[in-house]
Amino acid sequence: MHITERDGTFTAQHVTGPTHNMLRLTVGRGSPQEFAVTVLPAVGECRHHEGLTAEEVIPAIRSGLADANAALKADYVIKAAEIVENDSRQRGIYEYLTRKIIEKAAETPLA
């Protein structure tokens, strides 16, 4: 897994052979808030399913955020999220990527 940060937006990429996931989160601090998930166009030709939707990854992102905030005793929030339409459909990986992004945010001064 590889995580990068630019201006408070973190991108995590996880590629393990036939599965691949990218999650981009704009992170802040404060009171919980609603956030939009943008579904980016498919990358490449592969197809694992009919396509990821924002509705199916939002619960995983919220769960990963809650876990990370509890572990860190923090108040991180997600302002926006992006996924790729043809990435692997695995709820657990989006929870994991969210936790890892929040852990990285805890090490990075946010703007």
> Which structural class do you get from the secondary structure elements?
alpha+beta
Biggest sheet strand line-up: 1-2-3-5-4
Overall spatial form: globular
Q: Give the helix level as a range of percent.
A: 25-40%
| Helix and strand run | EEEEHEH
For the secondary structure, the number of strands is: 5
* Total domains: 1
Gyration radius, in Å: 13 Å
Mean residue pLDDT: 89
- How many helices? The count is 2
Oligomer: single chain
Q: What is the strand content? A: 25-35%
What does this structure look like?
It comes from Sphingobium ummariense RL-3. This is CO dehydrogenase flavoprotein C-terminal domain-containing protein. This protein is of the alpha+beta class and 111 residues long. It has one domain. The protein is 32% helix and 34% strand. The protein contains two helices and five strands, in the order ββββαβα. It has helices at residues 54-72, 91-107, and strands spanning 2-6, 9-16, 19-29, 36-40, 76-84. The protein has a five-stranded mixed sheet with strand order 1-2-3-5-4, with helices on one face. A hairpin with a 2-residue loop joins strand 2 and strand 3 (19-29). Helix 1 (54-72) crosses helix 2 (91-107). The longest helix is centred in the middle third of the chain and has 19 residues, at 54-72. It is globular. The protein starts with a strand and ends with a helix.
